[in-house]
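hiii, so i know i said id send this last week but things got crazy w the move. better late than never?? heres the sequnce for the chain we talked about at the cafe, plus the structure i predicted for it. fair warning i was half asleep when i ran it
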Amino acid sequence: MFQDNKIWIGKSEDEKVYIYPKMANRHGMIAGATGTGKTITLKVLAESFSDCGVPVFLADVKGDLAGMCKPGVVSESLQKRIDGMGLAEEGFQFHSYPTTYWDVYGEKGLPLRTTISEMGPLLLSRIMGLNEVQTDILTIIFKIADDEGLLLLDTKDLRSLLQYISENAKDYAQQYGNMSKQSLGAIIRALIALEAEGGETFFAEPALNISDWMCTDCNGKGVIQVLDCQKLINSPTMYSTFLLWMLSELFEVLPEAGDREKPKMVFFFDEAHLLFDSASKTLLDKIEQVVKLIRSKGVGIYFITQNPRDIPDGVLGQLGNKIQHALHAYTPSEQKAAKAAAQSFRENPEFDTFETLTQLGIGEALISVLDEEGIPTVVKKCSILPPQSQMGALEDEVRKAQITDHLLYTKYTQYIDRESAYEILEKRVVAEDEEERKAAEATEAEKQRLKEEEAARKAEEKKLAARDKQIKSAARSVASSAGGTIGRELGNQLGKSIGGSFGKKLGGNVGASLGRGILSTLFKK
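okay and structure toks below
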């Protein structure tokens, strides 16, 4: 409840307990065993921040936060609480709050989407359950996408790029290092599993524009953004990583704000232990960095969990506003955890913190907040105020009307599929196939040309050989005739000198035969 420019969250025996808006971005925690009233406390804080004019984001894990769009209804137990705390005199009244409903799957709210690029390789690796080597390779994949101007918007973009690199791994090895086909195949399988869990739905466009959350209604109340997580929580890693992405997005988008009179936005992270379960050292460092630095951007983060020990010390030390509901201490380990939780508060001499913590009733809590100077207050046992909006789930008809009548309905429900890595690589593959086809045709044409040239050469050689043969044959004939004539004449002269007319005739015949034979042999060679 917003009162005197302060957020009134509870009442002890002697005084009211407030969170000062200018200290609200020092973060906080709501902890306690199941059934002790954490959800009601979350609801009261969210309403109070909205009354203060601060936009709020909260994850609705059980579906019992959706009723904020309707005013609360009095019941016997609620009226008893109002009367017992004297709230009627304080101006307490039921009313509704400006609420926007979101759902990663687009079923119980506006589709809440992001892109593969905006999620980044580190968070995406966590969702996909990749090991360290595979995470490094995925980081290289993102670097290749940046270098080649390939937008990674949805899962088919990433899948097509992984397949393309797998088929051309040797071409990328020299510049980016070796990427084994086994590791690339493992990443592709993990991506297909992610698609089966709904990855095709929430990795898409239009992606969420965080500025659409930084708004107030016409009465100056901060709009409460409710993400329905009843289905998403079935994939705990997906749930926690998706909320961490939203924190990271706020951190990257918002400018430095310094100390403000009130936060720009307050972020409630329910089931916060899921964020830290099985988180790598790199991821834990990133979470701690975001928690430490996002305060200067004007954002307050409130973790809701069963036990403070679920939160790493590096993060826990950043939480200035603490609301601790009852913790069980039935076993030695539970007693140890409860004592550790009690010791984290600034001690109040009026009661034993450990004993009080284990004996708190429903709707009661130990509270320590930062005062106006930023100093933790002494812990106090308080009764938490009741919420002013409807408690419990929201009727389906009312929820549907709230979604379809919202100003952002048209913007976020129309799916967009612009040209990105998938389409570019498809064109590239087609172009490469066309180049290969043309190269193959050119090679075949060159082979055919060489074949034809060889055939022509052989035909020319054959033709020349035939001509040569004809020339030699004619030459032999001429030589034979000339040789015969010359030989006859020589034989005649020789025979005449030897034996008269008979000798002349015989010598002529012999000379002619020898002459023909000798010249024919010479021309044949």
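btw The longest helix spans residues 421-524. thought thatd interest u
miss u guys!!
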